[in-house]
Amino acid sequence: MTRGIRAVLLGAAVAAGVSSSRVACAEERQVPAASVQTERRPDVIFVPTRELVIEAMLKAAKVGPNDVVYDLGCGDGRIVVAAAKLGARAVGIDIDPQRIKEANENAARNGVTAKVDFRQADLFESDIREATVVTLYLLPSLNVKLRPRLMEQLRPGTRIVSHDFDMGDWAPEQTIAVDGKTVYVWTIPQK
Predict the structure, then answer these.
(1) Half-sphere exposure of 18 (CA within 13 A, CB side)
(2) Which domain holds residue 99?
(3) Strand stretches in 51-188, DSSP E
(4) Alpha carbons 2 and 6: distance in angstroms, whole number
(5) Mean pLDDT lowest for which of 32-41, 94-103, 182-191?
(6) Which residues pair with 104 in a beta bridge?
(7) How confident is the model over 60-98, as pLDDT tens digits?
(8) Which residue of 47, 88, 103, 166 has the fewest CB atoms within a 10 Å radius of its CB?
(9) Count of C-beta atoms within a 10 Å radius of residue 3
(10) CATH for 94
(11) How many structural domains are present in the chain?
């Protein structure tokens, strides 16, 4: 701050009844850049998965009533809702608060709110250990970035299903073509 502006502000503050020492203290107090939090933006734009693809993904993962399905980057919650309709408990994680709002509305419209949980969170920082099935519709680079977390947190036998994008050098066990799209399936191996 220039000396002239500082003098004008100090004069105005004193005229308003604020002590000059209090103004000087306030002026020197700065918020460190690291403590300023900015809202993290989504890594991908939301593109809804078509119903035929959702059905193929959940069928390939053999989703049933004993499953806990996690949809990472859940968008409007359509995969989570479909999994709940199959009897599974399902969790959707998305960083975008608007998508979480839409997902909750979607679950309410479909009468499955008791079987679903939508969380506004960063999927790279989320605890996904209870999942028996994980669904993804992320870019290949994000799938590859997510892979170590999947391997670290998921139990052997957990099924992973990705719409359109693979996991780099981790070869899928199954590849399914449906409605012009590709569905990839993996299983977390024994450790």
Answers:
(1) 14
(2) 51-187
(3) 68-72, 89-94, 116-120, 133-136, 159-163, 174-178, 181-187
(4) 6
(5) 32-41
(6) none
(7) 999 999 999 999 999 999 999 999 999 999 999 999 999
(8) 47
(9) 7
(10) 3.40.50.150
(11) 2
